[in-house]
């Protein structure tokens, strides 16, 4: 799945990815495939997988893509 970072707060360890199909999707730092190797900035393009949790949809295996 593809999307863009809506916002991400590294100190808090979470943020949101936005997609055309699913809208805003929660992102936790544990779902970032290469956590610590890059900074996530607003509008950065990303690819990820989607899973359903008790709290709703969540992005995981997130990776940055080249724009």
Describe this structure in words.
This protein has no helices and 5 strands. The mean pLDDT is 91. The chain has a single domain, classed as Beta Barrel (OB fold (Dihydrolipoamide Acetyltransferase, E2P)), CATH 2.40.50. By secondary structure, it is mainly β. Strands 1-2-3-5-4 form a 5-stranded mixed beta barrel.
Oligomer classification:
single chain
Q: Taking all residues together, what is the mean pLDDT?
A: 91
- Write the CATH fold name: OB fold (Dihydrolipoamide Acetyltransferase, E2P)
Which class best fits the helix and strand makeup? Answer: mainly beta
Low-pLDDT regions = none
Keywords, please?
single chain; 67 residues; mainly beta; OB fold (Dihydrolipoamide Acetyltransferase, E2P); 0% helix; globular
Concise description?
The chain is mostly beta strands.
What does the secondary structure layout of this molecule look like, with pairings?
Blueprint: E1 2-9, E2 14-19, E3 23-28, E4 45-53, E5 56-64
Parallel strand pairs: 3-5
Antiparallel strand pairs: 1-2, 1-4, 2-3, 4-5
